[in-house]
Each structure stands twice: as C-alpha cells, then as structure tokens.
Specification:
This protein is mainly alpha-helical and 819 residues long. 74% of the residues lie in helices and 0% in strands. The two termini are 65 Å apart.
Length: 819
C-alpha cells in the first residue's frame, strides 16, 4: 500500500463508525486493517493522536499503537525507542480526560513498550518520579501501573524467559514503592470511589504477579482500608467488587502459606471479620455482595486447605472457615453455594488420600450439613410443570451437585446417608418437590451403597416401583433414574426384575419419560445380563418398535446396546437368529432408503440406521471356543451387500462414509477372523472409492483389517497390496499446499495403518525371520506413537519426514514379506 495522508485515514475511520452503508463500513474496515499491518501505521497513529479530533479517531490510533508495539515492535530501529516512549507519555497526558478507554489502550502500549525496551531501566521508578506529584496525572499513572504486571505474561509479546525474569525482578524491587504510592492516593483522595476502585485494581494486579513483599504488606494500611470497605454496609457495588477481587488475589498469592506467614495471618483474621457484613447483605437482599463474600470465603478455604486438614481447629486451621461456607450454603440462591464446589471437591480428595478415620470423623458433621443444604437447593419450584430440565442453568447445577455428592459421600457413609434420606420420605409426608430432590440425591449415591443383603435398598426399590401414576411427573422421572442406578440391587435380588421392568415399561410408553426409562433399561441390561436373557423377546419387541417411542437418539442407541449385551448371553445356537431379528429393522430401513429416488439429487441420510447397526455389532460379544463357528458370522455376511451398496451410494459424503466404516469396523471386530470371506470384496471397494474420494476413515478401517488378519498367511500379500494402493492417493493429497496441516486425520490414520502392518510382520519375524530383520523391525516398532490429532494439527510433520518414514516402512514391509 502507498503511504496515505492523515486526512484519508481520518476519513476511513469516520466511514468505519458512521457510514450508513454496511458495504462502506466493510471497505473501511479492510483498508484500515491493511494500514495497521503496514509500516505507515506508526506515523499515522502518532499524527491522529496529536490532532485529537474526536474519540473515534483517537481510539483507533491508540489501539493501533498498542497492536503495533505488541506484534511489530521489531520494525522500529533501537534509536527510535526513546522517542516513541516520550511520544506515548505525551499523548496519554494530553488525552487523559478524553475517554477512559483511550487511556487504557495507551497505558497498554506504554506497558508493552516498557517490557520490550530493555534500555528502559527502572520504568516503574521513572513513571512514579515523573507523575506522582501531579494530581491530574494520577489517573493514567495508576492505569499504567495496573496493566504493567498484567502484561508480563502476555502471549502477545515476543519476549524470552530471561527477559521476563529480569522484568519480574525489577518489578519486585519497586513493588513497595508502588504500594506506598497507592496508599498516598487513598489518603489524598479520601472517600473518592473511582480512585479507590483504581487503587484496589492496581493492588490486585501486583498481588497476581506474586512480587509483593509479605512482611511489608502485612503491616500496610492498605489491607486495613480493604477490609474497612468490605465491612461497610454503604459501600457501592462496583467498589465492593473491586475490593473483593483484590482480597481474592491476595489470598491466591499466599497459597504457599508457610512462606507468607505474616500476611497470611492478617488476611485470615481480616476475612473472619466479614461474617456480619455477609448477614447484612443477605438481609438487604444484595445478591452481588453476597456472591462477593462467598468468593472471599471460598478463596480463604482454598488457601488454607492443607493447614485445615493437617491441624483442624488449631491456628489457621480454624474450622470457622468451613462454617462460613456452610452459612453461604444456607442462602436461598443456589448460585451462592455453587461458588464453593471446587473447595469441597478438593477437601474430599485430600481427606480420601489421608485415609484417617479420626480425621474423617472431624469433618463428617460439616459434610452432613453440606449434603442437607444441597438437597434443599436441588428442589424444583412448587409450581414447576413437567420433568426436570438437564440443559438449563439449574439442571447443570443439579448435575454438579450429583458429582459433588459422589465425591464426598465416603466421609458420611453411603448407607447411612441413603437410609437418612429414605427415612425423611418414609416417616413424613413431604411436598412433591422435596420428595423429588431427596430421590435425586439418593440416585447420586445409590451405586456406592453395598447392595449385598441390604434390606433398606430392597425396601426402597419395592416402594419406588409401586409409585402411582398420579404423582408429579418430575417425581416419576427421578424415581426412574433411581431405579436405573439400583441395577446392582436388582441383579442380587432377581425377584424384583419383573416389577422393575413393568414399571420402566410404563415410563417408556409416555413421551416425557421415554428417554429416561430407556436409559434405566439399558443400565439393567448391562448389569443383569444373565437374568435378562429370559426377557430377550421383550427387548426384541421394543427394538422392533423403537421409533414408536419418543426417544432421543442417545436413548435409542442405549436401548439397542443393552439388548445386544443380553443377546451375547444367549445360547450360541440362538444368537444367529436373534441377531438377525435385531438387525432386521435397521437393514430393512437401509434397503428402503436405497430403493428411493434421490430428492434434489441427494439420497436420504442413513446414519441413524448405520449407528444402530454399529452399536449392535460392537456389543454382541458371545464367548466362542476355539474351533466353533462364530454365531454372528452368517448374519454379517448377509448384511454386507446392503452396507456395500450404502457405501457406494454415499461415497462422496465423508460423514456417511465414516459411519459406514465405523459399522464395518465393529462388524469385523465382532466376528474376528470369521469375516474372512468379506476381506477381498471389502478391500476392493475401499481401494476403489479411495482413489476418487480419499476419506481418512478408509485408512483407519484398513488398520483394523491388518490388526485382525495381519498374521494370516493367505492375507499378507493382499494387505500389503492394499497398503500400497492406499498410499499413492494419500501422498497426492498430502503433497498439496498445507496438505499435512489440512488433513491431520489422514496423517494419523496412515501411520496407524503402516505401523500395524509393520508390527504384524515384525511379530512373525520374531519367531521365524532372520536375526538381522528381527532387529530392524524391533527398532522401528519401538518408535514413539504419534501425538494426538489436535497436537499434530498445530505442529504437523514435514512432508520429507512423513514420506521418508512411510517409504522406509513400505520397504521393511516388502523385505519382511519376502522372509
């Protein structure tokens, strides 16, 4: 681009903000973006800041200057750095009253310059010395001192580890000077709220960097001011949040308590004084302040967690910290208690590792009170209609409660808690919302209760399946979830199997309960496979009528998974017929789709049926003795033509081809070497389609075939030919510009295919091949497995390395084949 005039740049900025034509705005945006990437941006931004024509042009110029310093500082020769610094300081002083966002952008530019300009020694001291005596400059001085520590670890800056260390040491040296300046600002400004907010933000920034001296801070008046602000009832919301953020930063900074003892003690004592202020905020229904206090209390508990576990009730292991969190748990808004969840997770983890019954006994009452509060928070509104929602904020909260309960229940005792919860339902007559919440918590811990000879569990199960259909739909929904979680109890008490299945079938027939009932049936099938064998015909009837129920895709697949698991436990002579019946619905649906004329030139989507077949093949794993014919072999051979035709019809659609390959993968895995008759037609079709549409899933499916047949004498040459046939289109694809980066899955699957083939030949060579070849193969086999796909996308291998490796692999394969 040619050097523009400042008038032209200003005109483009005006168009960006004020042109009524969207196309005009877009053209201005593109042109200004090009300007920002050019060398002329430095001069244009400087001139716009000097002109001070309006907020828009000054903001654009300040933002441009910040961006150039962050990303293109190398463009400037070192002799211009001082002039740039002086210019920026002049601009921020002259524009300090125009707009706070402009001041922030310029402060960031100055901070980023200071961090990269090694010749600017003691920048903090220089700035404080120059501006601290000018009251009108104090606003932007504190802004610079706030963003400076925040930018030290910015990924936008191109500075090395040594430079960062030098900067941190320099900031640590002047940190006490900064704190003294902040205290002076507080004394001079009195109760000026805006200045206090700036001071607290700045102090928090220095705490976050971890450079403040603990002894100096422990005796500093700023701490006292912080807690005074938090204790005052009349403190505004914005100031309260800034003070809370600062205290949380301080607590986080002293997590290694032993090395920060004086400051830790001051913060510990200061936070404990905030309980009264919390109660005042609750009384005034000021939720923002309540949340702030809970954040502070939680950060306090997190910081002193190890101390609390090592010496509970002593010194800074004072259990009043837990009392503060339990007080917050009593707040009616669930968002408050949710803040503390991470602490309770960590506490449970620490206590589980210590495995000290006496220590567990100390914390047990606190966990019991927590669980009681969580059960209350999980209650739906009394006027709630329908089932509990899983996807809204409250539904996600309940899921987090369920996870937390599972993590800490060992401290209370699963059986004791389960019995107490059940007694609240048995002995009283609570409202439906209380009943539903209790059942929800019971479902969370049901699997952790020992099902062996447990009369309470069997009584609960017996009572739940007798719930009338007139109870609230949400209670029925959660009770079905509970039944699904109690599948171990059903397995040990098979007399309950019939009433449980009848209860779940009632739910399956109702639109709102169908999916949760299907999930429960899936759980029962997974755990009670042997007992469910007698009910296989009923499961088959459900599978045949699957689409008549109002099921989610996940629930429908889960039901088929459960049915397949039970199918695998049938006598071998019955499996083939039953598998054929189970697959028939899916196969008929695929045939129907294939017989239809494509609408608008596009065939109907078969993925639903392919996924269902895949889950059936995946989980039908009967025990077959050596020499026996696999019972699934004949069924899969019969289904193959339909899968082959589906693959041909949709060969251009990567998503559908992936589903076809996934289905074939599990079919091959299901019968193992029993699928040998499919090998030649499958490989032929794979290679044929791959020449035109190089979907990486074919490479993955090829690696499955190598895994299954690589040791078979009659399959070796065919598999090597398949590998060579697949490699040529793959190399062509990866040789394209950015081919390796654009096709990470292809790289991954190609390596998997080649290494599996090589491994199978090396294994054979280990027993029969010459020693020299064994060594070569062993060396190749010991190479580290490729990194995950996402990592490879970020740092793809070079073409030369990739092709060299694969070609070496092919040579080794050919050599091993000859031996």
């Amino acid at each position: 681009m040619e050097k523009p005039t400042v008038a032209l740049v200003y005109q483009a900025v005006q168009a960006l903000y004020h042109d009524p034509d969207p196309a005009g705005k877009e053209r201005a945006s593109v042109w200004l973006g090009e300007l920002q990437r050019s060398m002329y941006a430095w001069e244009m931004a400087d001139q716009l800041l000097q002109l001070k024509q309006d907020v828009e042009s000054c903001y654009f110029a300040a933002q441009t200057m910040k961006m150039k310093i962050q990303t293109s500082f190398f463009e400037l020769p070192p002799e211009t750095h001082i002039a740039l610094r002086d210019s920026l300081l002049s601009h921020i002083q002259s524009l300090k009253d125009l707009s706070p966002i402009i001041v922030t952008q310029l402060a960031l530019a100055i901070a980023d310059l200071a961090l990269q300009m090694a010749s600017w020694k003691g920048c903090v001291h220089t700035l404080i010395e120059k501006y601290s005596n000018d009251v009108s400059s104090m606003t932007f001085l504190i802004e610079i001192l706030t963003v400076l520590p925040e930018e030290v670890h910015s990924r936008s800056l191109r500075i090395g580890a040594n430079r960062r260390t030098e900067i941190i040491e320099d900031l640590a040296y002047y940190s006490s000077t900064v704190v003294t300046l902040l205290m002076t600002c507080v004394e001079k400004s009195g109760s000026n709220e805006k200045m206090l907010i700036k001071v607290f933000r700045c102090l928090g920034s220095w705490f976050n960097l971890g450079v403040l001296d603990s002894n100096f801070m422990a005796n500093n008046q700023l701490l006292m001011v912080l807690f005074q602000v938090l204790q005052r009832d009349e403190t505004s919301t914005n100031l309260h949040e800034a003070a809370s953020d600062c205290v949380c930063s301080a607590l986080y900074a002293i997590e290694n308590v032993d090395t920060h003892m004086p400051l830790a003690l001051q913060l510990f004592q200061g936070v404990l004084t905030l309980e009264t202020a919390y109660h005042m905020a609750v009384a005034r229904e000021d939720l923002d302040k309540v949340l702030n206090y809970c954040r502070i209390f939680t950060e306090l508990c997190e910081t002193f967690l190890e101390t609390t576990v090592k010496s509970p009730g002593q010194g800074m292991g004072d259990l009043r910290t837990l009392e503060l969190l339990l007080i917050c748990a009593g707040h009616p808004q669930y968002e408050v208690v949710e803040i503390s969840f991470n602490f309770w997770y960590r506490l449970g983890e620490n206590l589980y590792k210590t495995n000290d019954p006496a220590l567990h006994g100390i914390f047990r009452p606190y966990i019991q009170r927590l669980l009681h509060g969580l059960a209350r928070h999980c209650q739906l509104d009394p006027d709630h209609e329908g089932i509990p929602e899983d996807t809204d904020d409250f539904g996600e909260f309940r899921m987090r409660v369920s996870d937390l309960v599972k993590d800490v229940i060992f401290l209370v005792g699963s059986m004791e808690c389960f019995s107490q919860l059940y007694s609240t339902l048995k002995e009283g007559n609570p409202p439906w919302e209380v009943t539903e919440a209790v059942l929800f918590i019971m479902a969370a811990i049901a699997k952790s209760v020992d099902p062996e000879n447990n009369p309470t569990l069997t009584e609960v199960l017996e009572q739940v399946v007798l719930l009338p259909e007139t109870v609230h739909i949400a209670v029925r929904y959660t009770s079905i979830e509970l039944v699904g979680e109690m599948s171990e109890v059903v397995d040990r008490n098979p007399r309950f199997l019939d009433p449980v299945l009848n209860y779940l079938m009632k739910g399956l027939r109702e639109k709102t309960l169908a999916s949760v009932a299907a999930k429960a049936i899936h759980n029962i099938c997974s755990v009670c496979r042997d007992h469910m064998a007698q009910h296989f015909q009923g499961l088959l009837d459900i599978a045949r009528a699957l689409d008549s129920f109002a099921l989610t895709t996940e629930a429908a697949v889960g039901l088929l998974k459960g049915t397949a698991l039970v199918l695998a436990r049938l006598p071998l002579e019955k499996i083939a017929e039953c598998l054929s019946d189970l697959c028939a619905v899916q196969v008929m649906a695929l045939k129907k789709l294939l017989s239809q004329d494509p609408s608008n030139g596009k065939a109907a989507d078969p993925t639903v049926w392919l996924d269902r077949l895949a889950v059936i093949f995946r989980h039908t794993n009967p025990i077959v003795e050596n020499g026996q014919t696999h019972p699934c072999q004949k069924v899969i051979q019969e289904i193959w033509p339909v899968l082959s035709q589906t693959l041909n019809t949709h060969q251009a659609d990567n998503r559908i081809v992936e589903r076809c390959c996934r289905c074939l993968r599990f079919a091959v895995r299901c019968v193992g070497k029993g699928s040998a008759s499919l090998l030649q037609p499958l490989v032929t079709q794979m290679v044929s389609v791959y020449q035109v549409y190089p979907h990486s899933c074919f490479l993955y499916l090829g690696s499955i075939l190598v895994d299954e047949y690589g040791m078979e004498e009659g399959c070796r040459q065919g598999l090597l030919d398949m590998l060579q046939a697949l490699c040529m289109p793959t190399f062509q694809l990866l040789e394209q510009p950015n081919g390796l980066r654009n096709h990470p899955d292809t790289v991954d699957d190609l390596f998997r295919l080649a290494t599996r083939r090589l491994s199978s030949l090396c294994y054979r060579g280990h027993h029969t091949g010459p020693p020299g070849r064994q060594l070569q193969c062993h060396e190749v086999r010991q190479r580290p497995h490729p990194h995950g796909r996402q990592q490879r996308r970020e740092s793809a291998p070079t073409k030369s390395n990739l092709f060299q490796t694969v070609n070496v692999g092919l040579s080794l394969l050919q050599t091993a084949q000859n031996h």
